[in-house]
Design a protein that fits this description.
The protein is mainly beta. It contains 3 helices and 19 strands. Helix content is about 5%, strand content about 35%. This is Fumarylacetoacetate hydrolase family protein.
């Protein structure tokens, strides 16, 4: 499949052929495992997350969506930002903050924007997508969806991205991709983008109705309900059908400085 990767230390994306099943890159006619390469996250813009876009996630709130301060389910996309300090890469270590023992693993399909998107029409919304990537939208476990969860979602290393960007034309139907999360090789979660409340084109149209997305930005379609928890020492693997696998490890944050993990 045609894709783009960023070599660690480089500021530019390189076009390569990859195999999302074996997680390998073709270099000089040889298939090379990602474990034998040093690659950076392939993102050049801002990462925007979306809350409550899986049917099961919204249903799990029950009648709480009618409580104050809102009084009804959301009528527009609920967004948040993963700032640059959170960006992590394939094979990178996710630091467990001091005083915590569990982290929520948020498996998300990332839409990488290819051209400036302003008030796009749902019918041609996918033409604004350059490709797709995998994101581990890590967070500190929390219950509130009513206040900006900056201290829960914006910790250092809490947004692993990669391993590459699969070109849009390589993915036949992004609204029907199986997503799986493995912790220490044990399947802990399985869902599908077919369960999105706002399918991808609709989500792009609704978001760009009130904000501009720029080339290189990434819009996460959402995290499925019942996101698994991980602890220090765990190996995390997120698989998205047709995109590949993203692997990371959880380490003790108080023993290693975050920048030393990059």
């Amino acid at each position: 499949m045609k894709s783009k990767i960023k070599v660690l230390g480089s500021q530019v994306l390189s076009s390569v052929d990859v195999n999302p099943v074996t997680n390998t890159v073709t270099l000089l006619e040889d298939e090379v495992s990602l474990d034998d390469l040093q690659i950076d996250n392939p993102i050049t813009g801002t990462v925007f997350g979306t809350l409550l876009n899986y049917k099961g996630e919204l249903e799990s709130l029950g009648d709480a969506v009618y409580d104050q301060p809102y009084g009804s389910p959301p009528i527009a996309p609920v967004l948040y930002i993963k700032p640059a300090n959170t960006y992590n890469r394939y094979g990178g270590s996710i630091p467990m903050p001091e005083g915590l023992t569990k982290l929520t693993i948020g498996a998300a399909l990332g839409l990488v924007i290819g051209k400036q998107a302003i008030a796009v029409d749902e019918k041609n919304a996918l033409t604004y997508v350059a490709g797709y990537t995998i994101v581990n939208d890590t967070s500190v476990p929390h219950d509130s969806v009513y206040r900006p969860a900056v201290q829960h979602r914006a910790r250092d290393g809490f947004c692993s991205i990669g391993p590459w960007i699969i070109n849009r034309h390589e993915v036949q139907n992004p609204d029907d991709l199986t997503i799986r999360v493995f912790i220490n090789e044990k399947l802990q979660q399985e869902n599908s983008t077919s369960n999105l409340i706002r399918p991808i084109a609709r989500l792009l149209a609704d978001v760009t109705e009130f904000m501009t997305l720029s080339p290189g930005d990434v819009l996460l379609v959402g995290v499925p309900e019942n996101a698994p928890l991980a602890q220090i020492g765990d190996k995390i693997r997120i698989e998205i059908e047709g995109i590949g696998s993203l692997e990371n490890f959880v380490v003790d944050g108080k023993e290693t400085k975050w920048r030393d993990l990059l």
